[in-house]
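Minutes, project huddle
Topic: does the predicted pose make sense with calcium ion bound?
PN asked that the exact inputs be recorded in the minutes so nobody has to dig through chat later. Recorded below.
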Amino acid sequence: MSRSAQRSTAEIRFHRNLAKPTLAVCALLLSLLLTVSAGPAVADGGADELILQPREFSTPISPLLPDPDEFPVQLVVDDDSAEAVFGILGSSARQFLWMNAFTSPGDFRLQEVWVLFPDGPDVPVGGDVQLVVYLDGDGDPTNGASLLATYDDLTVQAADGSSFSVYPLDPPLDIADGANILIGVVNRFYMTGVDPPPTEPAAVDTDASQGQSYFALWSGDPPAVPDLSGADTIDMLAGPTAGNFMIRGFGGSQPVVNVPTLNGWSLALLVAGLGLAGWLAIVRGRQV
Ligand SMILES: [Ca+2]
Ligand SMILES: [Ca+2]
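Predicted holo structure (tokens), as shared on screen:
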């Protein structure tokens, strides 16, 4: 299979006005109209423009799914192939968060996160990225979620469209049962307002949207600790940008903490020892 490099002009774009959702809907309809009637819409330098652009990815992607014996918990919403890239256009490149919401498997230990990056100039190998994990108790990521952990000082390991960047979590993360586990990534390698557009770092499986992929935007770069309560926008990939982000999580059971138990003889010796210690204390007290 040939490696991906070519971009189709059949892209889907729509504008968002973060402060006025109703206007954003109007802009979406207008942009779609422009796309259909006159080709791709012109980027709006004053507003965010979401873009889902078909991209040819090479196959097969690697590595293969791990053995369930190694990772009994496998959080995957994609179908093992990406067909598009998602991003934000505007007057400059944007840092943003893209994430998948996975149904909780119950208490478990998250051990690895995989992210597939597309090739092309938007994703530099070695560029800084950050992983973020949230617990969403009500199953609605758009109203926020509890931040559990961030993993910093990570970089893009591969940006060839076929090799997942694999991040063993250090330390692994024990997660309690909840409605959803959100696993996301931030493209820290771009500075909002400084680097030139475009920003299309997220690989998307568009074959059958699971309705479990979301993105979050802040007015500038997401803060170092990207608490969703401070985000300007949290929204699901839907409508013309529907699809599944190529982000996966793997793990297993939380380790069982063994509490020492006492058998009959051990218990008898303990009682005897305590009794002896008490008797000695009494004797010493009488001698003073
Ligand atoms: Ca696919
Ligand atoms: Ca929520």
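Observations noted during the meeting:
- The longest strand covers residues 164-175.
- The chain has one domain: 54-256.
No decisions taken; revisit at the next huddle.
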